[in-house]
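== Sequence and structure of one protein ==
=== Format: two labelled lines per protein ===
==== Data for this protein ====
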Amino acid sequence: MSVRARRRLATATALLVAVALALPGSATANGERHSHSHHGKRQLTVMTQNLYLGSSLTPALTATTPEAFVGAVAQIYGTAVFTDFPTRAEAIANTIAAERPDLIGLQEVTRWTAQPTVAGPTPPSFDFLAILQAELDERGLDYSVAAVSDNADIGPVPLAAPSYGCVAPSVPDCVVTLQDRDVILVNERTRHLRVLKSRTGDYEAQQVLALPVGEVSFDRGWAAIDAKFQGRKFRFITTHLEVEDYAAVQEAQGQEFLAGPARFRGPVIATGDFNSAADPTTTATPTTTYADLTERWFRDAWSVNDGDPGASCCQAGALTNPVSQLTIRIDLVLTHGVRSKEAHLVGETPIPGTGLPPFWASDHAGVVAKLRLR
């Protein structure tokens, strides 16, 4: 072959490569090549986030008389209004827009329902799921609800909120109900990701509290989906276990989690607020749950960050602390048959721009992990 012929062949080859690069699905300037490589490696981005119901419930849980309980409910509701979930939802939606996770596990997806029993009072209600979805829609995102675990359903109980016209005499003119949920959101724009089925369940082990208005339980449970990504089946779960103060119940729930939804013939990704410190030295009330979960079945996606404590809990109850108070890591992405490529915190810095409380999107930081199905 002559030198001239070789030059013509090289020129033609270069032109063919240039055309191929310009075609859809090729290495274009908009990053499409990166996207296809991402899917070819079966890589998923997942996120876990405790939304925070907006207030500590301790005043109600420690009340010893009906009058004290009504006062505690007023305090809790007032703090939940003050911590302003609509503002916090904007920050969480901004994080989701920046991270674009394929799957999200949410905890404390609260619904506060305040209702007048007579004409006149105007107490506000808040459905955290509806508020967050509206913010996601506003940003042009497309996340659908794939599974919901209905947990606590407390109320209606008398509500004293004078600023909204609610007083609580013997016959209250306002009542409030607190409902708690764990939710899985799926990014409908993730190519080759398909939900096959969803399922939910409650734990048999539950902490029951005796309050002046009767017995109350948080009815904790889990939500899961079986899905397929790039032709590979896997399970994605979210849960919120009992707090460390009730160690025996939490540890029993952890064992139920391992024996139940976590058992799947294929890759498993578990997200949630497990309420068990990954480093037991960071809490005064350690439990064995984290060790039980990670000893034989799960790997912690955070393990790629050697030496980084990854503290995710907890800010002050009213979210008025300008300096972070995160000291323990209890918000986890756990995997089985899945390789963690990267993991980082989100929401661990103050909401930008306001200069006023709430300073934080939640009392918990979230975790985002980039995972590859094996």
